[in-house]
Amino acid sequence: MTVGAWICLLSPLAGALLITLAGTRISRRTAGYLSTGSVAVAFGGAITSFIGLLGKNGEERDHVSTAWTWLSGGSYRSGFEILVDPLSVMMMLIVSGVGFLIVAYSIGYMDGDKEERRYFAYMALFVFSMLLLVQGGNFLLLLAGWGMVGLSSYLLIGFWHERPSAIAGAKKAFVMNAIGDATMALAFFLIILYTGTLSFDHVFNIVQNGDSGISNSTPINLIALGLLGGAVAKSAQLPLQTWLPDAMEGPTPVSALIHAATMVTAGVYLIVRTHVIFEAAPKVEELAAGLGAGTLLLAGLIALVQTDIKRVIAYSTMSQIGYMFLGVGLGAYANGMFHLMTHAFFKALLFMAAGLVIHALHGEQDIRRMGGLRTLMPRTYLAFLVGGLALVGIFPFSGFFSKDSILAAAMDHGWYGYVLWVAGLAGAFLTGIYTARLFFLVFWGEPSAFVQEHFHKPKRDVVGISLAAPVAALAVLAAIAGWIQFAPLWHPIETWLQTVAEPLVSPAGWQEAVSSVLAVVLGAAGIGVAWLLYGARTRRVPRLAFAQRTLEHKFWFDELYDALFYRPSIRIARGLGRFVENPLIFGSGRELGQETRALGGLLGRAQTGLLRTYALAIASSVAVLALVFVVVR
Amino acid sequence: MIVATVGNVLVWAVWVGAGFACLASAVAVVSFRNPFYSALALIGNLGSLAVLYLLLSSDFVAAAQVLVYAGAVMVMFLFVIAYVGPRMDTPWAGGPGWQSVAAVLAGAALLVEIIVVIGLKAGGRLAHSAAVGDAFGSPRDIGRLFLTDHLLAFEITSIVLLIAAIGGVILGAHSRQPADEVPSL
Amino acid sequence: MTTLLIVVPLAAALVLWLLPLDRVSAAALALLAALAEVGLWIQLLIRFDWNERGLQFEQRRSWFSDLHVSYHVGVYAFSVWLIGLAVVVMAATIAYAVWVGRERARMYFGLMLFLTGAIVGVFAAQDLLLFYAFFEAMLIPLYVLVGVWGGPARMGATLKFVIYTMAGSLLMLASVIVYGLSQGTFDLVDIGASSSDWVFLGFVAAFAIKAPLFPFHGWLRDAYTESSPEVAAVLSGVVSKAAAYGFLRIAIAKFPGPTEDFRTPILVLAAVGLVYGSLLAFRAPDLRGVIAYSSLAQMGLITLGLFAANDLGFDGSVLQMVNHGLISATLFLLAGMVERRATTGELGRLGGMARGRPLLATVLMTTGIIALAVPFSTAFAGEFLILAGVFQQGWGWAVVGAAAIVLAAMYILRVISAVLHREPGTAVTDAALDLRPAELGIVVPLVACLLALSAWPAAISGHAFSRDEATRSVSQEFR
Amino acid sequence: MIHRPHVDWFALAPSNVLLVASALALLSAVLVPRGSRKPTAAALTAVGYAIAFGFAVALYVRSAHGHGVVADAIRRDRWAELAQMILAGTGLLATGISYRERSRSDHVAEYYSLLAAAGAGMIFFVASNNLMTLFLALEWFSLCLYILCAIDRERLGGLEAALKYLIIGGFGSAVLLFGSALVYGATGQLDFAGIAASGRDNDALLVFGLAMLIAGLAFKASAAPFHMWTPDVYEGAPTPVTAFMSAATKTAALVVTFRLLVTAFPQQAYLWTVAVAVIAVASLTIGNLAALVQRNVKRMLAYSSISHAGFMLIAVAANSALGGRALLYYLIPYSAGSLGAFAVVAARERELGVPVTIENMAGFGWERPLLGASMWAFLLGMAGFPLTGGFIGKFYVLAAAYRHGWTWLVVVGVIATLVSLYYYLGVVRAMFMRRTEDLQLAPVGGSPPTDSLLQGAVLVCLVVTVGSFFAVQPLIDLAKHAASSLPFLQ
Amino acid sequence: MLGPSVAWYLSVSAFLFGVGALGVLLRRNPLIVLLSLEIMLNGANLALIAFSRHQGQGDGQIFALAVMAVAASEVVVGLGLIVAMNRKRITLDVDRLNTLRG
Q: Measured between CB atoms, does E35 come within 8 Å of chain D?
């Protein structure tokens, strides 16, 4: 089955290279097919390895396959190796599966763009990177994939590179992720320092046995913090969340794939993967949960006032990932992963549905200019509805199962858990509001003037199909995928992940029930509120100027970071240039030279050209020399 | 005994005379404004030096001094001075003042140092010199030295003189052709 | 073998100078010689025995016996890689010069080949005086290459460059004399370790200026921006590595005591240079300025790794030397190509070159991405090892390094987007074509090397030093 | 009965041959018609130098054990012979350089005759073994040089230089003479060995005389602070003569200084080593700093020659066999470089017809590739870059200083070299990096006929300069044997 | 020996040397400078002869004779130069000989 995994990993890379090298020799459409095909192959590979694992019982579902020694220094080595175990296979399935649908969708969505080939190459590259991330057999390769997905997300966000905003968003995303990479790298240095290796099982064993002093509070906490830094950067959690909304400058499928389904959830995967370390540093783990809770509230609030259809969904992504962090932070790994999966389905669905809307409206994204699309594009309306309900967590849609189990888990974690639990419920309420707001604004009411003049229906050609089919597929998934695990009754995912990540919490049935009911109720309440405000328009939206502005400025995080980091570094650079580089570094040499020349000039003037001067020089030096000799002798 | 003392006094007297003549003429040479007089003073200087040489019982050198130097060389000097004309226009001395001062200082320093050094020795070995026979400094003696120990020196001297002659010809002679023609060396 | 590597380019240079060839044949001959050099190096690579420890392909003839100076050359494992870097980069730069068509071809190519020989000599010399001779010999052609074929302010630049470097080298000469005479031999293999701080500092001064390290980089900006792109490529790509090599081969290997004593100050300089260079690169107004300061930063990083003085650091540094050599050479050549199209390197007047120029965009993007050490690139591998190594000297260093790497991301992205993205700049017309096939032929090999290394950085980092025991000090490592 | 001493004609052969050549050249001034006067005289001189060189080599081979000859007036040993080789070679090249010199003088034959005579004098000088021969030989070649400076009476610069040189030279030799007198007085000996034998080391007269001797010789070697005549004379004299002086005079003076100090004043080493070291430092400092600001190339080279004197005096100050080796080795590339550099200047002078300044070297390197490249090599050699013998020379000198325990001297030398780079490279810069268009004046009468003799000489200098870097071993062996014939204490 | 000891003669020679030196250092007329040089040489000569007398051996006198010849030749060349310059209408003033300087 490792073979399947290798195929899964490499075929997207092959696709990317093929498209790059082929260049203009192949048509844009072919490029699309190539990339889709390669991802499909990857999915196939994932399935084979999944089946392969199914054939084994719990303990033997852990296979490492090394291709060659990738990096070695001193006695340290790490190979180019992949790890096939339940967790990675699950991620492989999600990534390649959802990836396949979205790439297929792109064929239609990106149709007619000048640089489609580049786009599909990038997409394939991203899928490869994501698979590298989840399959990487050691920390180093994990970090490699980590950086690669950051890179490809940079490339894709900035895909329309004439747009300054796109480039800016791309840069922002990359730099913030680079910060995360840096903290992770530092954590790895610590690991190397203490263990001399970066392969998962060695490190985990050492941590669990607690020898070599790594488990002392300081190093282990620092390591966990470093990892957490990477996780929050990648998953757009507090305090490194600001890049995600700007990332919406990229094409919509990109947002669906990278900034909803796969990459942004890598943080969750990381925590689950390295849960041993986090469990050794419980404080940090709780911090992760706390950050998750904070983010889900923050994002939910901001989402209330966003007017860009994609940004609303982006913020909802942030808050949903907040749930996942909450879950895994409390040790409910299976639940976190479960929500990751369902979220991948319904969030990708939402994005692609939004994509259809945007596509139909010639790239318009402002929801205030939309409305009444229900009649014009009923299927999209349905899809969006499914996605929305799943997002809010209404029974029986997938969100319900995964999200509520996380809340239940929170209840089983002492007072701290309860705090988070409350936050989660509040989040559910907010989710209801903003999702429904978006829904009503876009689809209900009468078609706005803008819509009437710009709307055009997709035709039933390849484009239409490639746009429609994936959405349909995802809608189905979003609707039913939740049934895979129904928390107290049956939990295959938990058992599947048992060997990799033993959950720390096991909520009782009543906790499940309570939180489920409350969550659904609150979600419904949120929808109701939204209906009052936007659907039926019986109430006017309450105006709280300050709150409004705060939310619209996203709690001034961008401004804060600008003032704290960006501007100072610019100013320092300028200052160095003006006060150090030019005067000291360049000046010094020049002045020294001038001084020396001046001395030379002096000597030149002593050379009067007069005989007597020369004779005098001789006579006096003779006198001195002789005197010295006679005295010293 | 008495003869000795008398002779001693006599020699002293001659020495004093010659010595002072020598010094005075030297000062005169460097201080006269007119080179002509300086040249004449130098002749006097050379003469008095010859006397000192005699006192140092080096007769041949004294003779050479008078003949070669005071005779030939100075005559040439006078000729040139006459040829050039008694250029009065050159100022006595000049250049920046501090240089003159420094010059005087340097010269004085040299002088004093040498005399001090000699004084240092005078107490010691310089006091009594080796006794020499009549042959010392005689032409025969000199000739022998010239032909034995210092054969080469003798030869070189002649070479130097020859070269000087050539130089005199080259520099002093009238140019043999009009200046416009430009051959390359 | 080693001698051959040194002599071939020198001989070619002589031929160029002596025979009255026309421009075309001169260029052809030069290119041929450069490629032959690469071929020779590949031979070396193949025939080098990686399990064997110590010096290989050794050759030794007495130069003058009374002071025990000899012509002694040979290659260690890591020298192989540095020589490879040198010959490959020189080949690329010469090819570039051929493509651009420098006037006074015979002189120009002769000098380039001469330079090649000198650099290879530096990496192969196993005798102090010989090393010094080659080290200086590099300067002679560089002086003229910068001064004659450079930009408007070339004269000041070249003079500054030479005076600066000579200031260091002459101190090194003093050190060479003192060291060699006090040890009774000048042979780098036989000569014993010394504990003299002053001698050590003499060497360090030379290398610190050549590299350059932080306060000694006064010559850097002018030399890199005024010289022609290919010469700048050689300067930052290869010549600076000679300095790093010197650190490793002499300063650290032969002066274990002083290395311990002066580690902290040198590490401080390196770290400061790393951050300082990155910041200034972020501020630099033109393409080459950015690359210049980035290479200041990179040399700081390499020095960090070297003076971490542990195996991680050494392996990382050697790897990073090759990486940075290839990267900065490629970047400078690309900068040259961009400047040829836009007639300027000012970032303000560039932009939007990606549109309709896919090849340029792809190559520049790829190189840039590797340059900013995105994980899974060879540069990342090198920096990872270096920082992991220096981390063991103290956490602070690695933190600084990591911060600087984030800065690196910032300035490289700035360059990439300033050149490729946004609306076309004032200097970018439609006359500015995409890369021509010839230009591709020049840069793609370099990029290919980088990608190959990204797939297998251990090729270098695992084969830089003989590996039979992890020694703390390199000096045993060489034996 | 006078029994004349046995005269070792073989030992005298080099200088005698040159004297004969000189005499014949002189005769040709009157016997040969003007048209063929120059070729004859030049050929005679050249042949003379060539034969002298041959004799010097033969002597070097044949005098493994140095001994005094002709009543110990001169010494026949390898020290002298190697120096004579250098001198003869220098003279030969100088003849070649002189051949096409433009001059309004009609004393062509005399010029060559004097050139030969000067060479003879120097060759004799380096062998001299007592104070008298030393003084006389010094005057011998000095007079020749005075006249050579003024050989072209139409050039005021030449006359001025000559008179300055004469007067200051006279002053210097007077000092030297008085010094010899004092030494003679203190020891009663004129020949070096005798002085060493009978001189007590703390004798006031003796050390005083020593001081004056050092001054007189340092004057000839144009070491600071006795150097001030050098730039003026070098600038004023005809360039070929300058070339000859810069190479030959220095060689002779330094070789003799070393021999005198080592042979005659071993007990006073504690005095003169320091003194020479100080003079060396002064020369390095003054020479280099003053050269920085020169625009006239000849003048700049003059100052640089002062600094080189400083370098070689470091070797002298080392007072060791290694020092002697260093000195003799250093002299070979230095002479070649200096001759060559001045030769190139002469060539430029001839095509421009004006004094050569750094400005009007512009573009020269590209117009005359051979000369340009050679000039480059010479300058690099003087700056002590590798691939030229200058590098090895400096290396040896500094090594000698270090062996003597004078690390500070090493540092000084190194710094001096750094300063010197500035002006040497300045010339290279002018030649290669400035375009000819920057040059205001046009060459007179287009480019003169290519001067094959001068170019040949330059080529030889180039070969020596570069070759001495590779063929260190043989040269060092020569120098080693030569130095071994001096009685060093260690 | 009769009369004053050698030291006295030496003092005279030293005095001559010093005065001659002063002449060279101070005077501007090249002729007189030449004469001063002569005086310096003569001072040296006197020293030589005095010492030779003191040592009781003739080398010094030989040296002195040689010096005379040398002095003579210097004078010849010097005078030749002066004549040549005079022919070029150069004022005989060593302080005017400063076109070469710096």
A: no
